[in-house]
Design a protein that fits this description.
alpha+beta, Beta Polymerase, domain 2, 2 domains, three-stranded antiparallel sheet, 7 strands
């Protein structure tokens, strides 16, 4: 395996490492010629300390993950956050001198990424729905729960959600965070679903099941509201990741790059340590979602990554390996 780049990742890249931080390494490699010719290139190599189930990393632990060139460029084209962070990592994060192949990737990075870095936007949405306590979401969840409770009392536990399609259609037209969507099923069929704050319920589900899902959603929002007041029982690490990803996405869409170490590393570290009130962080995540969506729409990044360039990079690099072994 020929490494073309290896770098310190995670908190050591972001500028949020502490004495308790473990070390994450990420890299990209060129496979051996015989693996290329025999079509047995491994997409990823990973190594880490053997741990018991549920055991977390400790200070001094080292986790390493290395991608084949083709796998890395595919991840970059998909807009995966790990690949984007690697692309913009500064030389100070490198553990080896990057090869000319990595320098070419960096130089042509603007053609390898696109405004459809959907993983950023999707992640922001997921975290906003998971940790946000925006009033409109709470109201939507409660409205759906009330409708399903009434329908269950009227039609019975086993009646299908599809029986109140007309009422749900009206709710879709008048209520934020509630919509009806079609999702693919077996074969060429699609099944209609009720989506409430990103929680999806099939029209084939019973009213009892649908009502229970809505009840759990309302309960979750209620619990988050209590957490906001008490500032306790919060997954601060996950919240810090949500804010970091949102800010990275905003910078990427506005400037076409991401700065490391993060200029706001102290803020991220403060959230991770639980030094920022939950409600403040939840509000920041909500605002970031809106800003990221707007920045994505207005971004000057290409609509699509240059797939021909990706194929050319992989072809030339792999041909070079084969020629060297001849």
């Amino acid at each position: 395996m020929e490494l073309i780049v290896e770098m310190r990742f995670g908190s050591h890249l972001y500028g949020t490492a502490t004495t308790e931080s473990d070390l994450d390494l990420k890299g990209v490699y060129l496979p051996a010629a015989h693996d290329i010719l025999l079509q047995r290139v491994r997409a990823t190599f990973a190594s880490n300390r053997a741990k018991a189930p549920g055991q977390k990393n400790e200070a001094g632990d080292v986790d390493s993950e290395v991608y084949s060139l083709q796998r890395y460029l595919d991840l970059l084209a998909e807009g995966q956050t790990v690949a984007l962070d690697m692309l913009f990592a500064p030389d100070a994060a490198m553990t080896i001198s990057p090869s000319p192949w990595w320098r070419e990737i960096q130089a042509k990075g603007h053609r390898l990424i696109s405004r459809r870095a959907t993983s950023f936007v999707q992640y922001c949405h997921q975290q906003a729905n998971k940790y946000g306590i925006k009033g409109s979401r709470v109201a939507a969840a409660r409205k759906v729960l009330a409708m399903l409770t009434t329908a269950q009392e009227r039609l019975g536990n086993t009646a299908k959600l599809e029986l109140i399609a007309a009422e749900l259609t009206e709710l879709d037209a008048t209520t934020a965070h509630v919509k009806l969507i079609d999702l693919p099923s077996s074969g060429d069929r699609s099944v209609q679903h009720l989506e409430v704050c990103d929680r999806k319920i099939s029209f084939s589900a019973s009213l009892k099941t649908a009502r229970e899902i809505a009840q759990r959603l309302v309960d979750e929002y209620g619990q988050r509201a209590l957490q906001a007041e008490r500032n306790e029982g919060v997954d601060w690490k996950a919240l810090s990741h949500a804010v970091r990803i949102g800010r990275e996405a905003l910078e990427l869409f506005q400037t076409g790059r991401i700065t490391f170490p993060l200029p706001y590393a102290d803020h991220i570290l403060g959230i991770k340590r639980g030094m920022v009130p939950y409600k403040t962080v939840a509000t920041e995540i909500e605002q970031l979602v809106e800003e990221v969506e707007a920045a994505s729409s207005a971004s000057s990044l290409p609509e699509e990554p240059d797939k021909a360039l990706i194929e050319d990079l992989v072809t030339r690099a792999y041909m070079q390996k084969i020629n060297e072994s001849a």
